[in-house]
Amino acid sequence: MIVVAAALGWPSDQASAAPPGADGPPVGPSAVERMDVDAAVAEALRLNLQLLAQMHEVPLARAEVITARLRLNPTLSLGADHLDLLGTHYDNVNHAGPQEFFARTDVMIRGGRKRQRRIEVAETGVAVAEQQLRDAARRLIRDVQCACVDVQYAAAAVQLAGTNRELYARVIALNELRVGTGDLARVDLTRAQIAELQARNELRQAQGAQQVAANNLALLLGRTRVAAAIFVTGEMRADAGAYALTDIRAQALRQRPDLQAARTELRFTESDIRRQIAEGKVDLSLGVEARRQQGLAGTGNSLGFFFVVPLRLFDRNQGQIERARQLAAQSEQRARAVEQSIRIEVENVHVDYEVARDLLRSFEGGMLAKAEQVLATAEYAYERGEAGLIELIDAQRAFNDTRRTYNEARAAYAKALYVIDAVTARETPQ
């Protein structure tokens, strides 16, 4: 691990204790926080603001289940009629009245199993919300892991830029001595100073990119402000095992929560069709009334029963039934679209994986070591006066290109591995 980290240009445990911009102007926060990829993922799952907002969808869906399970409340009516409030005075001449007082209660009996259908729809909605939450967690894990790789790659770029600057600083110090003794023309010193200035600018750009990568990671971690630069410890992921396209596709189609959510949403719309058909059924209403009359000849009590049947001649919920059917057809197409997008996503990630793997393997023949040896030889020859500054700069550029390509290959391969895990939902919380 230490050898590979050194080859990538990552700081050692001692070196990483210094701020990321220790070799140049400070960039962003001066403090450094160290964490590995697993710790970053765990923190994001706890504190990421988007995921926390998504989590509320599950209790909201469960609240719909509570609502669906409720039964209709009975109604209570109290009334008084034929009251002598206007001073008419009921008597045997006008035969007005008698005064009546009543209390009535009504209970609605819903037909078509409406309550059961509502519960079925609501419970299916909970399953959809849970699967969508799992998919949000899956995408967050992927984004955090790739952001960690970006931070690691940015740290390697800073280290490489710092090495280049140190090289030209040594060349400038050597050339100043040579110019002082008359062994070197001042133009070569000027060329070295220009190259050192360019290396310093590249270092500054690399430090800025490093801070941006750390800020992007901090956002995914749910931090409201960046109090410290984040340094991701450990090696970039480099699994040696092979990943077959057919295996990735089969796992993705079997385990992806977004596809499961799309298929469950299809069941949701099918349940809603049954609910809307039930809503078109007739609801009955039963009522009981107790009435008291106070007339001139005396008082009397009576009891009445009521049975109400609405005549659904026109509105039988046809519009909502058709709407539910169209939503079901739309959900079926969406499920097919999600499945097709997963198939294409699997194809693409497998291509990225193979390209990154092959590119990384091209360095196994010692290309990086050869570039380092060429640079060391050129620097040694330049110090002895056996090579010119142009040859040294060419060797340094070749070394930079080789190291940069190697770092890019490492980062691309690590990201491809993380994306394969995300595509197959291997690390998605259950």
UniProtKB/TrEMBL annotation:
Pfam family, one: OEP
Domain of life: Bacteria
InterPro entries: MdtP/NodT-like, OMP_efflux
Transmembrane segments: none
Family: Belongs to the outer membrane factor (OMF) (TC 1.B.17) family.
Name of this chain's protein: TolC family protein
